[in-house]
Predict the structure.
Amino acid sequence: MAAVAWMSVAVALGSLGLAVLAWCAFKVWLGVRRFGRELERTRRRLEPKQSALRDELSRLDEAQSSQRPGEGVRSS
């Protein structure tokens, strides 16, 4: 009879442990969803600045490539 009681306790503790793991997994899943939304919002906010920076870099690259090699500024 005592073995059946220990077996019931073991099954109950195992079930409780799985419930705790499921709760933790659910909290992680919610956090990942929230993080994904935050990343998407940040991406939308940074897109205009990123495209402006990309345009400025291409203008600088074009200006640099139009210079002859000997026309650079020298430092002493």
